[in-house]
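Student: I would love a firmer grasp of how sequence relates to backbone shape in proteins. Thank you; the sequence and its tokens follow:
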Amino acid sequence: MAIARDIQVGAQPRERLQSKRTASLLRLIPVYIAVVFGAIIFAIPFYWMIRTAVMPTWQIYVFPPDWIPAEIKLDNFLIPFKIFPFGTWFLNTIFVSTAATLGATASSACVGFSFARLRFPFRDTLFVIVLATMMLPQQVRLVPTYLLFSKLGWVNTWLPLIVPQCLAPAFFVFMLRQFFMSIPVEIDEAAFIDGCSPLTLFWRIHLPLSIPALGVVAIFEFRGMWGDFMNPLIYIRKVKLFTLALGLKLFQGNMTVRMQGLMAASLMSILPLIIMFFIAQRSFIQGIVISGVKG
């Protein structure tokens, strides 16, 4: 009897735990349904672009529209290369985005480390000024920036697109400073005791530890530069210097371009970003979490 009583008493906590798990799962069902529904809603435009890119011409303007192509026309992906120098625009975008990403990542790491670890006069005041620049909209800086680059002779070159990004953008400085502040100070003290200089401390200790945060900066910067339309529109005039964002607008304005060609060009232009995100999503999420650990 005593053994049976013990078994019955031990089974009660397990039943309570099982009921709590069931209740928590039931509460999550509406959340999962909402997430799936939202994912479907946001995926419809992307599917529509793919569907239009591979559809034959006669089926695109059918009403009511067909959701499934009658046949797959992969020849549509050759249209952008036949009408415009799409390959050149693609290479231009890769070069501008890569150069700006390398410059922004390196400069932001140096400035962020300086604000987080070095001691110098008016450090906090200068950091506040850096953050204050984030409050200025691009439209406010548009005219004086253009006049400056015009005086320098940089108009109709890629320099206005690359050089400003190599001067430590304020948002990236803030994010990397937050990350460097989360590293224990005892590491710096031990390094200084061993004879490390601030430059050696940054290069050999802090920089390797900050790879996740640097990955986030690189992803943000590359994505922003890849899809940037305003700056190339202002500073680039030669068609051979166009980036993809500016080239797609030229596609859209050309009445001889068929809709499937425009959708094929749009799909090819965003495909590198999709591949990059799926490859680096773990580093991206890890860097976002680590960067906000300490304020």
Notes: The two ends are 60 Å apart (CA to CA).
